[in-house]
Amino acid sequence: MNDEAYINELLNGYIDDELTTRQQTELKRLLLNDPGLAEKLDRMQRCQQLVKMAPMEKAPDDMLDRVKSAMTVKARQKTQQKTEQKTETRSIVDILASDEGLTAGSVIAAPDEPAPAPAARPLTFGEIFKTAGKAKVTKQLQKIKADIPEHVEKPQEEKRESVIAYAFRRYASTAALFALLILLVFVVVKIVAPVESSKPEPYVQMTSEPRFTIPEDASVESVLNEAEVAKEPAIKLPAALENDLTATENPAAAQPEETTTPAVPAKTLRSSFQLNLIAKDSLIAENQLKALLRDNPEIKYQVLESQPQSAAYSLDLKLEQLNTFLMGMENLWDNFTDASLAVQTDKAGKPIVVQGANLSQIAAITEQQNEEKRIKAANYYAMLNNVENFWAESEDMTDNKTGDILDNVPIPKTVIKPVLTSDEHADTPTGDSTEARVSLTIVISMDN
Amino acid sequence: MKVDDRTLVHQSQQGDFKALEALIVRYQDRIYNVIKKICANSEDSAELTQQTFVKVIENIKNFECKSSFYTWVFRIAVNLTLTFCKKRSKTKIYSLNAASEEELSRTNNSLQVFLRNKKSVDPSKAAENQELGELVMEKMKILTDEHRTVLILRDIEGMSYSQIAQALDLELGTVRSRISRARENLRKVLEEFWV
Fold first, then answer.
1. What predicted TM-score, i.e. pTM, was given to this entire model?
2. What ipTM is given for this predicted complex?
C-alpha cells in the first residue's frame, strides 16, 4: 500500500470513527504538518454529509402482503410439483402392475403413502425412487417399457431361479476377479523379486539342514557320539563320487589310497569348507598335497577323486590342525593360479563362496572362533574380492572404525601369500565343543 | 416493549408466523431503501425486497445466529441486488431519472454553494438537503456497484466496518480499502463543484 492510499484510509477511518488511538495520533501529526491534508479531510466529510442527506425511501405498504402472496404462490407450486410426481408415480405403478400382474400400490408405495412392511425382496420402486431421483427413474422405466416389444410373464419359480443365477454370476465374477488379481501379484513378485547371484556350484553339495541339533548345554562327547550315530551324510556327493567313496570305505571293493586312519564322515561336523584350487599342473599339486598330508599324520582324510586332470580330498580335522595344515599349504601355493573357498555352516544355510581367495583370507575365515564370525568373515572376503574399488573403503575397516563386521579378521592389503604367525593362532577357538572339528574338502583342477 | 431480533428469530424458527411478520415489518423499509439506493429503480427494488424476505422465510430454520439477523438479512438483500445489477448491466443500461435541464442546473448550483461555502448541514432546510442528497445519489451511479454498496451501507445504513464485512462476506481490510477508494472516487466526481 502506498502512502497516499494509507493516508486516505486514515482519513476515512477518522470520519467513520474507525481509527485506533495510535492511528488517531498519527493522523493528527500528519494534519498538523500538511494543510492540504486538512482540506482533503474536509471535502471527504462533506461528501459523507451529502450521502447522508439522501432521502430515506420507504418500502411499499403492501410489502408484507407481497411477501405472503409470494410464499403462497411458492407453496402452490410445490404442491403442484408433488401432485405431478404423484401422478407420474401412479402411471408407473400402473405400467408395472400391468407387467407384473400386480395391483397398483401393492409393491410400490406412492411417495406420500406409508410404505409396505419390508420383506426379503428386491427393492421396491418406492425405494428406487428415493435413492435414484424420481423423475429420472420414471423416464427410464417408461423408456424400458417402450423398448420391450413383448413382455412374457415369468412364473414365480423361474424368477427366483433367475435371481439365484444372477447372484451366483455376481459372486463368481468377483471371485474370478480376485483370483486374477492374486495371479497378477504373484507374477509381478516373481518378476520383481531379486534373483540370487549365480555362484559356482561347490564340488560337494551341502545340505542346509543340520543332521542333528545340538543342545546348548551338550558336552563334546555327547555331541560327537550323537553325530556318529547319524546314518545319512550331511554332505551329499555327486553320484560319480559317491561310488568312489563307497569303494574307499569298503576295502574289498577298491583299494583305499593312503589313509592313515579311518575317515570320519563329514556328516559329524558343524562347519565344512571346500577349497577349490586351480593348478598349473594338477598332478604336481596333488603330489605335494599328499606329501603335506603325510607330514601331518594326525589329519584324517579320504581321497574322493584322483584323476590326471582333477583330484578331490576330504579332510576331517580339528581347528588347530586346520590352521597348521593351511600353514603347510603355503609351500604349495605357487602351483595354484586361482582358489575359491566355499564355507558351509549350519547358520548360513547356503554355502558362501569366496572367489579368488588367498591363504591369508582362508586362514582368517577358518580360524574365527565361532560360526557367526566365520560367516561374517566369509561374506566380507566374498564382497572384498568381488568389488574392485573396495580397497579404499577397507582403509576405514582396517582402522577398526566400523567395528561390528569383523572384529578379529585381519585385513590383507598387499600380501598375497601371508605368513601365519603364532600370534594369529592365539585366536584359535576355545571351549566351543560343537565347533571343535571341521571338514575340509580340497578339490584340485587343472588350469585350462 | 420491543422484542429483540434473536427472540423473534427463535420464535420464527419454532413456526411463529407473527414473529416472522414482525421481523419483516422491522426491516422492510431499511432493506428497500438500501436496495433502491443500489439499483435505483422502485419496481425492481420492491421485487428484490420481496425476494429477500421470501429467502429469509425459506432459510430461517437454518439460521444459526452466528451473526446478527440484521447483517444476515442485509447480506441476502445485497447479494440479490448485486446479482440483479450484474444481469441488468449485461442486458441494458438503465437511464438516469429524466430531470429537466433547468432542475438539474438548479440542484447543481445548490451543490456548488454547499461545497464552496463550506456550509454545514442546516436541518431546517430539509427539502433543499433532500434535493442535494438525491443529486449525490445520481452522481454515485458513476461508481461501481461494489463501491456504491459500501458507501450506502456505511453512510446511509450506518453499519460499522465489521458489520459491512459480515454483510458482504469480505475481510475487514478489504472493506477499509474499498470504502477509502469509493469516497475518493466520489470526491473526484464532485470535484467540479469545488472549483
1. 0.44
2. 0.84
